[in-house]
Batch of 4 targets.
Target 1
Amino acid sequence: MEYQLHGGDIYHGKIALDFSVNVNPLGLPCGVQKTLRDSVEHWNCYPDPECGELKKRLAEHHGIEQERIVCGNGAADLIYRLVLLKRPKQALLLSPTFSEYERALAIDGCQIRYYVLRADQDYRVNVWELAEHLAEGDWLFLCNPNNPTGLAVPGEQLEFLAEICQKKQGFLVVDECFCEFLDQPEKYTLMEQIRNYPEVILLRAFTKSYAMAGLRLGYAICGDTMLAKQLCLTGQPWSVSVPAQEAGVAALRENNYLEQTRALVEKERKWMEQRLGKLGFWVFPSQVNYLLFRDEKNRYGNLKIRLREKGILIRDCSNFQGLEPVGNISGFRYYRTAVRTREENEQLIEAIRMCDRNYEMTE
């Protein structure tokens, strides 16, 4: 299948480096790897359908009640389960943003409107303007930090949106799957205030922050404990496998892993911003482990295809709402790249340099 909705297609062709998905560049923590190896003998058993131990550890980790937590087969699983449970009639989405909100909402014929982010404002979310677009009964899905832009809305502004949704009898879903990559993640979440907002649900995942994409483990934190009970009943009983539950518990014991991750990402993101800029790209500001950039002069052709020929994947953003190529072949092309280790980042930058048509003409 040539067309891919998301990144991570390492299964067709020889791929040496994958920058198309934004998993932790440090890889799966050593403690989690050991736990997985040691837990193999338990894989013949059915998993705990309640995810009891994992929920207990998550409740302690976040300082919330266990009854608010629902575990699932990744955050995407919980998005679909929530939509199928509540069947929202109308919703407001950012443009551009993660596409699975739209896909899930479209299943039941939800009416979808878009709040369009602007390139000349670096695709930042203006919450005051966003709030003006909220209609009575709207569901608002907010990716925070947003994907593919990498910018986050501060906690006090999230509270403002939660209050607006409350007044308008709507619902707020905040996808915080990249929150752990922020320099101070506690300043960009409603975690401590979740008890005050029954019409809010937070989504988190081990997928990106702990490099556990292949294990599929996410969780929802509900402002309404009754909603949590209902959401638990929407999925099949064993949606979270034994290895995924074991890995999640082990990941929460990793004390310094996320701090090391943030230090590496901040350093490497600045390095990559500079290098991509020198190669002639317009690079948009980001606060996390990926960068959105564009080729304004079509200097590199279809960069995704040309890099794939070299065994490197990046994310072509042309199927994001609002990032489609403008006009004809001379229009902007948008891409997203993960921020990885220096050695890997150097390989990417060198491969991109060799795709420059001006460079090829001098060879």
Target 2
Amino acid sequence: MRRAAWNADARLSLIEDSDLVPGDREVVVRVLSEGICGTDLHSYRGHLPPEAGRTPGHEMGGIVSAIGPGVDHVREGDTVGVEPLLRCGECRLCRAGHYNQCQIAGGLIGLHVDGGMAEEVLAPAQAVFKSPAGVDAEITALAEPLACAVHGFNQITVSQGETVLVIGAGTIGLTAQLAAQAAGAATIVLARHPHQQEAARRLGAAEVLGEDHASQQRLAELAAEDSIDLVAECVGGHADTIRQSIDVVRRLGRVLVLGLFAIESVPINPVNLMLHEVTVVGSVTYGAPGGRPADYQQALDILASYQAEARSLITHRFALDDVNAAFETAQDKGSRSIKVHLTPNG
């Protein structure tokens, strides 16, 4: 089988490798669709130096091609997604469903072991989820980013009829919009780029705001009217968006931090935080705490009901041979890309 692997110069080459053989409680998945995410781009840009020889990719959908002993929840030929978190399964946090916080064997497929930018990927059986009927591998590959938003909203609770402001309209922001709407909330999306604004409208946002003066005036009106129940911060990086979130959310409102920040401290207005009694919650990846269905499974169920909307997020598709061109497209805002997928067996 062929797989893409990092070179020492943070570019990718294709190499031939042996076909994968599953061990006990393992599954081999033939990858049909694999998304490029922000973590992958950090490696490509050299901000997060990758391990030479490692195959990236943790947003994957495919078909089960082989199962090892002890696997009975999927069989060969099933369309599946892979929840890429590694965990020990035995520590206090894992047993409570917070396996995203495992400190013993925590890690990520595509970062600590070989991932989905390959014709085949090997995954622990517990990480393999059967897709709902009628959901193909391409849609299934979107379950991973969507599960991040589902986990966050499960942490902070979003209710029918609430208004959620989503700041940022990359993949995380747009999937957060979809998750909020699936929970019955109305969404307002603050998006920088015109193609992101168009995508938010296609997904069904009640309002879409930009960076122009009229949009900023509208945001100030919403804040003054206490109209925003919850803010999902989906920008991260070096942005001033946590402060902005606290300042615009209503009294007794909530702020969910989903964006990955590249700095250790950010400015906030502590007076607004205190006087308005704002709740701020951080969230990372996904899990299955409290005995509820796994966030990843909930994401798959949402996708089954919003397939056309979800597929509209995939703007570019590349063969495995063109993996570097795919990365260049994903990092180029001029390409109008939202989600770039590889099709290793397409």
Target 3
Amino acid sequence: MISKPDILIVEDDEEIAEFLQIGLSAEGYQVSVTHDGHNLVERVARDRPALLILDRMLPGDDGVDLCRQLRADGHETMVLMLTAKDTMDDKIGGLRAGADDYLTKPFGFGELLARLEALLRRTGHGGDAQNLIIDDLRLDLSLKAAFRADKPLALTATEFSLLRFLAENANKVMSREEILKAVWGYDFDPTTNVVEVYISYLRKKVDSKHEIRLIANVRGFGYVLQSPEGD
């Protein structure tokens, strides 16, 4: 199974930070968040994220200065700088401080994702075709297509997102709450049975024609996509 690279978000606006964390996690990235630049250089040295999403205006810190410190210490982590400042001088200042790209607020998630993927390709973390493979199940992330025993599965966009989340966490039991947040983007709702409904859809499409069942319900805990060798 391919593990996507780690991303560190440094953003003091909690709504923006949560929006980015949910969206990027749903895309398969390992995401961490901090709301200030305190000890950022030390954290990058310790955690070694592949990419840093860095707000320019942080409480008590300037993203440009932080980026300059990272580069002065020899850190080559890709930096995508976010800012409300949109003049050409501001952009040039950010890039000269060592940022690899510069995105002005407000921005669309699709544009941010495209820029992020382009930066990661430059470091060898990206790829034209990525696959998640569990037993004879394969998810082609570039095509957003799934195959079981090399036969295509007719999945809706939501079904694919759910299967992808389970595949990225293969052999781990994922709670109903974790699935709701990752796939549908909202927190626990005791009145909805959307997770159960879509798990049922997936089981019919992924498992019903195969002797080995990959999707399991762990009563009282949640759901798991489990390979035979993961038993």
Target 4
Amino acid sequence: MSGFDEKMRETFINNLCQKYPFIECKTIGESLCGRGIRCLKIGSSNDPVLFASAFHGMEWLTSLLILIFANQISEAYHKNSDISGIKIKESLKQHGLMLVPCVNPDGVEVSINGAQTAGPYESLINQIMDNKPTTSWQANARGVDINHNFNANWYELHNLEAENGISGPAPTRYGGPFPESEPEAKALVNLCQNVNFRYVVAFHSQGEEIYWEYGKNTPEISKTIGQQMASLSGYTLSAPKGLAIGGGFKDWFIEKFAKPGFTVEIGKGKNPLPLSDINKIYPQLKDMLLYCVAI
């Protein structure tokens, strides 16, 4: 086993929820292959922050990152203790935290354990990959990039994809036949329409960068928050380019709600980052994650 796959993730979540009964766990939707998209809530329902990760198959390390954080703050909540001087229980009772550890569970399984994990989509994936290893798979089970599937400048991005030779199912960067065509994207859209999030953070890998703006609805406070996130993490505040502009979750959230949204590209190296990298990444990002919850 070469990554943080479904079995490991579900075991982690189940153990966490059994140990800390105050964590609310629900399923907000299902992937194409019927895998549940899980959501955890810690603390108040009042204007929570959302952390969402593993939009892309081979970026599964992002799931482990936010689950380790969930475990640490749950322990502090249970013990009524501080982390880095922040009173966790007091903070979470004011504004809670919700986490979607794996937006794209099918893509993660395909990347780690192969096309056979995609059930009826196995032959499509093998055709797309020309029967080569699926380690670099980013999309969902039918070759749609979830982070190109949100309705933020989708049509312009779709044309740009076509100009770059991406006009159908692919390992990455195909935004689908229409905005929110994929159940994984729709699950997050529905969640955000039903919960009054004060802002959202999407986790990807890699590059040690933080993206904070999208279009005219970006709030003024976003840059200030982003600068503090960069300061605490040592990451660079950046702007995406080319095919990375539009279609993404944080882009859609900013455009739809005119609230702050951020993308954090964790770690540095070649995707998929190895499991061992979490030993460096988590300590580097812990105070930034705490800040995101506490502000």
